[in-house]
Write a structure and sequence with these properties.
The structure is a single chain. The protein has about 250 residues and is α/β, with parallel strands linked by helices. The longest helix has 18 residues. Helix 1 runs parallel beside helix 12 and helix 7 packs across helix 9. An eight-stranded parallel β-barrel has the order 1-2-3-4-5-6-7-8, surrounded by five helices. It binds phosphoenolpyruvate.
């Protein structure tokens, strides 16, 4: 049985003070939750405040991106050891916004994932098609290209330590969620890619999160699908009550 993960991606929202206020409200609401791992990904500057606020709770902290070099003249970038020192346990890699606005490619996703794994971080590698791809029947082709050129290039051992987030771009921040059946079908396809590239054991153990307008009112339906091993939540993770009710979808 794969353990579920509910992760919140705050994107470029929340100052340190807002982060502390969030955790003060959120931590007690999820303290009894045992059915899933709970992850929050604040912006870089709020990571230390989040790590401090999440101490002695069941919440762990993720970064939203990382650079693959150890150190050097890479203005604006953050290394894996900086994230580890700050207390991060996870890092989101290849989010569609990074691909769309900041030039992430399959190649950089692989480099970032390898560096993160070498530092002991758990990468959440995002893949997913645009609306035009889905409408022209290219969803599988796009997901396979992103899988084969990204996580598919990891070693079997590395691959066994990552999570994948299936995030159809047309559902991110649009309020338009994939139906549970659409999401499950894409997850099944990605699992098949993992079986072909690695092994059926790797595929069976792989945790695939769904992301795209997950809200308190649709999480239950999504999680009823066996293929969905959790969720990557954007907008609805910013409010403590709404994120807590997503985390506590079983109650
Ligand atoms: C995301 O940022 O990964 C995301 C899925 O956003 P939203 O939940 O707002 O669609």
């Amino acid at each position: 049985m794969r353990r579920r993960v509910i992760a919140g991606n705050w994107k470029m929202f929340k100052t340190q003070a807002e982060t502390r206020a969030f955790f003060k409200a959120f931590a007690p609401l999820v303290s009894a939750s045992k059915h899933c791992d709970i992850v929050t990904a604040p912006p870089f500057t709020a990571i230390p405040a989040a790590v401090e606020a999440a101490k002695n709770t069941n919440i762990v902290i993720s970064a939203q991106d990382v650079y693959w070099e150890k150190e050097g003249a890479f203005t604006g970038e953050i290394s894996t050891s900086m994230l580890v020192e700050a207390g991060c346990r996870y890092v989101i890699i290849g989010h569609s916004e990074r691909r769309q606005f900041f030039g992430d490619t399959e190649e950089t996703v692989t480099k970032k994932a390898k560096a993160a794994l070498a530092a002991g971080l758990t990468p959440i590698v995002c893949v997913g098609e645009h609306l035009s791809h889905r409408e022209s029947g290219q969803t599988h082709k796009v997901c396979k290209t992103q899988f084969d050129g990204g996580p598919g290039l990891l070693t079997p051992d590395e691959f066994s330590r990552i999570l994948i987030a299936y995030e159809p771009v047309w559902a991110i921040g649009t309020g338009r969620t994939a139906t549970p059946e659409i999401a499950a079908e894409a997850h099944k396809f990605l699992r098949q890619c993992a079986a072909e590239k690695f092994s059926s054991a790797h595929a069976a153990a792989l945790r695939i999160l769904y992301g795209g307008s997950v809200k308190p009112d649709n999480i239950k339906g999504l999680m009823a699908q066996e293929e969905l091993d959790g969720a990557l939540v954007g907008g609805a993770s910013l409010d403590p009550k709404s994120f807590a009710s997503i985390v506590n979808f079983t109650s």
